[in-house]
Amino acid sequence: MDIGRVPEKILKRAVLSQLKVKRPEVLIHVGVGEDCSAIEAGEDEAFVFTVDPMAGTTNEVGKIAFQIAANDVAASGAKMIGVLIDIAMPVGSTEAELASIMRDIVKLSEQYNVEILGGHTQVTDAVNRPLVSMTGVGKTARSELFATSGLRPGDELVITKWIGLEGSAILAAERGDVLRKELPESIVREALRFSELMNVMPESEIAREVGISAMHDVTEGGIFGALWEMGVASDVGFEVDIRKIPIRQETIEICEVFDINPYMLMSSGSMLIGTAKGNLLVDMLESAGIHAAVIGYVIEGADRIVRGGEDEKRYLEPPGTDELYKALKQERCDHER
């Protein structure tokens, strides 16, 4: 298998097909596209759980792992209250490197009032860069719990901020030397600041106020991957206009340098939302200073269509390897601008 997420067909055959136990306390069961599970906790409360590994970058790996877990919890409608952390360091790592990862995590835990509940640290020859796995624990009222599988035909699809923020920030940090040979320094500096835009908790709160069917944070696989996962989880199709998907010019420039597709690039910081009130949601998000756009709508059936114009149409396929990994594997860039 290639680097990145296990392909959907293999996931279903090798993993999901073996899961037989379903307990009545579990409110959200495992499935394609479901980043969280939820367990009932009292008459109208639920605990939400998610787990995410982060090894795509050595820069701010703890910060990114924490934010991805927090975003998953927020997409379920819950507020994160605690995290469990597993950190695997490569042989030869220093105490300072471990301390730096923890400082980033602690800073965010204090900012969001999230308790570090415990975890595990180890040095192992099984990894060649730090691997941080974050288990997020959230809490919400059962009536405010949302699953990725909640999309309904007729819903409008809203995307927040801009796609590709996470991948752009990682590439600016990891391959800045390559980018600076091809792009102005101002573009690289701005892309580095994209890591400050990865929190989707504010848009989650606004979306719940407006009324939604489902939310899904856009992570590995990019916007195309997130659309596919929501469609599969909800057993619906959709039509999306690619021209309406917001993207920063810095991301376009970076993707051109590495010859990768920005619509299949890690995009933490963007939330994909299904709602019957798309324009109202966009107005409220914009009023709060969060850029957003209606990019399409949900339809019955299994057709997952992306249009680029009146006569341009493509059908989405299951997501493959994230474009970030393709760029990180490149030793140098031979792309002609």
Topology:
Layout: H1 8-15, E1 26-28, E2 37-40, E3 45-54, H2 61-75, E4 79-90, H3 95-112, E5 115-124, E6 131-141, E7 156-160, H4 165-174, H5 176-182, H6 185-192, H7 201-210, E8 214-217, H8 222-234, E9 237-241, H9 249-258, E10 271-275, H10 278-287, E11 292-299, E12 304-307, E13 313-315, H11 323-329
Parallel strand pairs: 4-5, 9-12
Antiparallel strand pairs: 1-2, 2-3, 3-6, 4-6, 7-10, 7-11, 8-10, 9-11, 12-13
Q: Keywords for this structure?
A:
single chain; alpha+beta; 60s Ribosomal Protein L30, Chain: A; Phosphoribosyl-aminoimidazole Synthetase, Chain A, domain 2; 2 domains; 7-stranded mixed β-sheet; 11 helices; 34% helix; disordered C terminus
Summarize the structure.
The chain is an alpha+beta fold. Helix content is 34%, strand content 25%.
Describe this structure in words.
It contains 11 helices and 13 strands. With 337 residues, the protein is α+β, with helices and mostly antiparallel strands. It has 2 domains: 19-144, PurM-like, N-terminal domain (60s Ribosomal Protein L30, Chain: A, 2-Layer Sandwich), CATH 3.30.1330; 148-329, PurM-like C-terminal domain (Phosphoribosyl-aminoimidazole Synthetase, Chain A, domain 2, Alpha-Beta Complex). Helix 2 packs parallel to helix 3 (95-112), helix 4 (165-174) crosses helix 6 and helix 4 (165-174) crosses helix 9. The protein is globular and about 55 Å long. The chain starts with 7 loop residues before the first helix and ends in an 8-residue tail after the last helix. The relative contact order is 0.17. The model is unreliable at 332-337 (pLDDT under 50).
